[in-house]
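Lecture notes, continued. The same structure-token format from the folding unit now serves as the input rather than the output. Read the line below as a description of shape only.
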């Protein structure tokens, strides 16, 4: 009975076992915090790039139509090319899809961001995607009817 009491009361090394069991959990939580912040930043960056690319695409106005009719008209080929050119300049590793529908330029941007700590558990990168649209406005616009 004395030997049994000694075995039950001996807790030497218990802290080491707890530390070994909790270390992976703590690293996973730290990875979620650090890489989760990176994911939010990457998504916001993709949105910023898409918005600016849509604005760059809208700058490709069809000057002939604008001068002859006074109507804002985006050049379909030039607008899509200008938008994706902006994306390639701002983020060379990002994928770009741009289209012009009427006078609206729509841009979709996809980026990949490497992880820092989540790579230890097999998640090496994550994808961030965003879309944006823009339409041209020329001249001075007011709320008054002429």
């Amino acid at each position: 009975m004395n030997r049994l009491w000694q075995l039950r009361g001996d807790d030497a090394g218990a802290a080491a076992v707890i530390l070994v069991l909790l270390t992976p959990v703590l690293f996973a939580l730290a990875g979620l915090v650090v890489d989760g912040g990176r994911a939010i930043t990457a998504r916001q960056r993709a949105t910023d790039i898409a918005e600016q690319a849509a604005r760059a695409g809208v700058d490709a106005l069809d000057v002939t139509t604008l001068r002859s009719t006074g109507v804002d008209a985006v050049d379909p080929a030039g607008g899509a090319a200008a938008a994706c050119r902006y994306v390639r300049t701002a983020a060379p590793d990002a994928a770009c899809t741009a289209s012009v529908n009427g006078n609206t330029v729509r841009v979709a941007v996809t980026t990949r961001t490497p992880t820092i700590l989540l790579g230890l558990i097999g998640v090496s990168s994550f994808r961030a995607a965003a879309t944006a649209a823009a339409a041209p406005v020329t001249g001075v616009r007011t709320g008054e009817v002429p």
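Point for the exam: The first helix runs from residue 2 to 9.
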